[in-house]
Design goal:
Pfam families: CBS (PF00571). By secondary structure, this protein is α/β, with parallel strands linked by helices. The protein has a single domain, classed as Roll (CBS-domain). The chain is built from 6 helices and 6 strands; from the N terminus they run αβαββααβαββα. The chain has a 3-stranded mixed beta sheet. A 3-stranded mixed beta sheet has the order 4-5-6. A hairpin with a 2-residue loop joins strand 5 and strand 6. Helix 5 packs antiparallel against helix 6. It is elongated and about 70 Å long.
């Protein structure tokens, strides 16, 4: 059974960090240039939370704040459910659904390991489905197997 450790290894290293003191305008420019919907917020190289396009629309635009003068730590999401590297993708889907979150920070003890997104879990579900289908097809083609 695959774990979140496997999903993170397949996903590769994170490149989408931003300092908590950066402006929201810097964050939006970074998200646009990298074609991503969230950034991992750090302070003194420690995980602090996530800032997403949704945070921007709800906490800057709708509150009539200014992107150039508002800093990321003022709008970031801090209270996301935390998962471990040994959680399964299925467990993460349940957690995301219950918390209505699209992002889950991953920790190994106190060490931040990355973020799992709803898109990562979708890709994982597709991969698992493809592997199951391939195994079923192989079993059906195997002439030595008899189905009763």
């Amino acid at each position: 059974m695959r774990t979140i450790r496997d999903v993170l290894l397949q996903k590769g290293p994170h490149f989408n960090f931003i300092d908590a003191e950066a402006t929201v305008l810097d964050a939006i420019h970074t998200m646009k240039s990298k074609n991503i919907s969230y950034l991992i917020v750090t302070e003194n190289a420690q995980y602090m939370g996530i800032v997403s396009e949704r945070d921007y629309t709800h906490k800057v635009i709708l509150e009539n704040k200014h992107s150039a003068t508002t800093v990321v730590k003022e709008i970031m999401t801090r209270d996301l459910p935390i998962i471990g590297i040994n959680n399964t993708p299925e467990e993460c889907m349940v957690i995301m659904n219950a918390s209505k979150s699209r992002y889950l920070p991953v920790f190994d003890g106190l060490d931040f390991k990355g973020v799992i997104t709803i898109h990562d879990l979708m890709r994982e579900a597709i991969l698992q489905n493809e592997q199951s289908s391939a195994a079923m097809k192989k079993a059906m083609e195997d002439k030595s197997l008899k189905f009763y």
